[in-house]
Amino acid sequence: MTDLRHLSLGPLQDGARVIILGGGPAGVACGLRLRRRAEALGRRLTVTIIEGKDFTSESHYNQCIGVLSPPLPALLEEDLGIDFPYHLTRGEIREYVIHASRHQLRLPDEASPSIALRRVQFDSYMMEQARQRCVAIVPAQAMDLELHAQAVLVYTDSQPVEGDVVVGAFGLDEGTATLFARHTSYRQPEALSSVVTKYHPGDHAMAAFGPRIHAFLPAEAPIEFAAVTPKGNHLAINIAGRDVDAVRMRAFLKEGTVRAVLPNLDQAGQSDPHDLRFYKGRFPISQAKGYYGDRYVMVGDSAGLVRAFKGKGVTSAVQTGIRAADAMFDVGISRQAFEAGYHKANLDILRDLPYGHAMRLAVIVMARTGMMDAVIRAADQEPRLRRALLGAVSGHESYRQVWSDGLAPRSLAAVVRRLIIR
Prior knowledge:
Layout: E1 16-21, H1 25-41, E2 45-50, E3 67-68, H2 72-79, E4 92-93, E5 95-99, E6 104-108, E7 114-116, H3 119-132, E8 136-138, E9 142-147, E10 152-156, E11 161-163, E12 165-168, H4 174-183, E13 191-199, H5 203-209, E14 212-216, E15 225-231, E16 234-241, H6 246-254, H7 256-261, E17 279-284, E18 292-293, E19 296-298, H8 313-330, H9 335-343, H10 347-369, H11 371-379, H12 383-394, H13 399-406, H14 409-420
Parallel strand pairs: 1-2, 1-12, 2-8, 5-14, 12-19
Antiparallel strand pairs: 3-7, 4-7, 5-6, 9-10, 10-11, 13-16, 13-17, 14-15, 15-16, 18-19
């Protein structure tokens, strides 16, 4: 590893200033980790998060479904020094049900249940933890930036902020991405669209629904996958694909298999006037280009360092935020430093991306051709194939492991038998 300690772009020293664009999990995790490392080393460090949203008012809707699972609690407690917000829990997810065109499969997950909560409340909690640890919060929108040899300057709609390095934690915000694309080689990752809505079926219906997520793999394009997730007093419903929109969501809600899962759907809006309002967002499915360089680095969705298909987005965001902070303290803030300290730290995510891409394409093909029904029927009898499906839908396993389980001889033999015996 190149020793960069003698350079101005070497490890963060006493009096350093870090600017973070975005107050979501990736940006706040980076800020908290920076403050913790600085305190441990006895160094003065100014960390400023620029975020235009007011999470405390809960006035905006986050398209993330908000299902959090291990190792996220350990990351918060051990690496960031904060408690996991169990008080925000809106229920545990202890089972997944996969729906193909004709068959379904129940996959219990009692060993490592996930936690459902509202993302905006989680983001508000994280931001408050940052404030308590002396991270400065600037409620503004970044308008432009300058990357100079000796410093970084971010212009906002309220005040300019100067620092030594800037961290991009802005998700897939196109406006902020354009600022970086104008001054660096950064290019946003590829993304799928998502349409999300919610529905309050009533307390009795929620109790009957139970602690499970229903995942759908439709046979017809453009929906690649969909899910219905319990969130305390309501159900969150999302569809994803390259060209999904409100029309596709309305059609999805009319399908028989979906209506069988959604209780009392015809009564939507009676208990909450906001029922079945649609919100649209995007999530990355590839690695961003040029996601680090001299005096800048991207984390979370901005870098595309997430599971290539779905799941564990918050966990990946927190992990990459922590790793970027460690790279700045241990190696430096130059392109070479981020290559050595940040890029290499994320090889676990990067090496799994090809397997995730392959999984996405395989699922699309199997769903469109009807093969997914044979896979589900086979998994009902073959434990290793069932483990592969649980690992894929829950996000507990790497896609490399999912492929290993799914392509095992016994798994393949079970699928072939089901294809022959219709």
